[in-house]
Design goal:
Blueprint (H helix, E strand, L loop, with lengths): L5 E6 L24 H4 L2 H6 L1 H17 L4 H12 L3 E6 L5 H4 L5 E3 L2 E8 L5 E3 L18 E5 L9 H10 L2 E5 L11 H7 L3 E6 L11 E4 L2 H14 L1
Parallel strand pairs: 1-2, 1-7, 2-3, 7-8, 8-9
Antiparallel strand pairs: 4-5, 4-6
Helix pairs in contact: 4-8, 6-7
Bound molecules: adenosine-5-diphosphoribose (APR).
Length: 233
């Protein structure tokens, strides 16, 4: 097998499922309680800010109560021990990658533990509620929203992500359904640039056919095994 010098890992809600955080498109998925339009769009926030703030206040509390699982910790080990280029692009808004020891992480859909002031544009690490309209630490206005990329908004960090996809020789997708773009298109972008592609997922995803290899099973089993393989090379 050719040398591996540069890896891009894409993760989705499935990597945090075994930490007790609900995914989106399972039957008991997160969106089942609310139509996406109500809680994950700027229009929904404008229509009912209290509902949207409450939805994300609940998720922020769940994230704080959750613990990283063996998959997050394996990627933390990869980050520490892999001497090549590594970028972990996550669609998740939890901080379990960081608490699992990973440092080279980009949150393309934002972070539940970040608040974004709509008055002065400042962003602040935020662990409490926003529904009660706390003043922005920078400008004092009660104008902070969840720092989450909603449908119709531009994902974060797309330039460094595309640069990494163009340069990597291995692209690994973990725990994502391949239902939402632009993340669902990353595998084709990587493959077009000559990267090998591997999917680690509980079940076949919408994009499985685009991967050179697809391994089915829980992330807490598949990810440590894969990290062992990479570090043993
Ligand atoms: N191990 C590995 N994979 C798992 C596990 C597990 N324990 N549990 C579930 N999965 C897989 C599911 O089979 C599914 O393919 O994780 C995937 C989760 O898919 P989604 O619920 O669609 O979540 P995700 O792909 O992250 O959604 C992408 O959509 O709603 C938006 O912004 C939201 O970031 C999210 C984006």
């Amino acid at each position: 097998m050719p040398d591996i010098n540069s890896i891009v890992v894409l993760t989705g809600a499935g990597i945090s499922a075994e930490s007790g955080l609900r995914t989106f498109r399972a039957e008991d998925g997160l969106w089942e309680d609310h139509p996406v339009e109500e809680v994950a769009t700027p229009e929904g926030f404008a229509r009912d800010p209290a509902l949207v703030q409450r939805f994300y206040d609940e998720r922020r509390a769940q994230v704080r109560a959750a613990q990283p699982n063996a998959a997050h910790e394996a990627l933390g080990r990869l980050d520490r021990e892999f001497t090549g280029e590594l970028l972990i692009v996550t669609q998740n808004i939890d901080d379990l990658h960081e608490r699992g020891g990973a440092k080279r992480v980009l949150h393309m859909h934002g972070e539940s533990l970040s608040a974004w002031c709509q008055s002065c544009n400042a962003r602040h690490r935020w662990e409490d509620t926003l529904g009660d309209g706390p003043p922005c630490p920078s400008c004092g206005e009660a104008a902070m929203r969840p720092d989450i990329v909603w449908f119709g908004e531009m994902p974060y960090e797309m330039e460094p992500i595309f640069d990494a996809l163009s340069a990597c020789d291995l692209f690994v997708s973990i725990g994502t359904s391949g239902a939402v773009y632009p993340a669902a298109g990353f595998v084709q972008q990587a493959a077009a640039n000559g990267a090998r592609t591997l999917e680690l997922n509980l079940e076949e995803s919408l994009g499985s056919r685009n991967f050179d290899e697809s391994r089915l099973g829980p992330a807490s089993t598949l990810v440590p095994q894969w990290v062992d393989e990479v570090l043993a090379r």
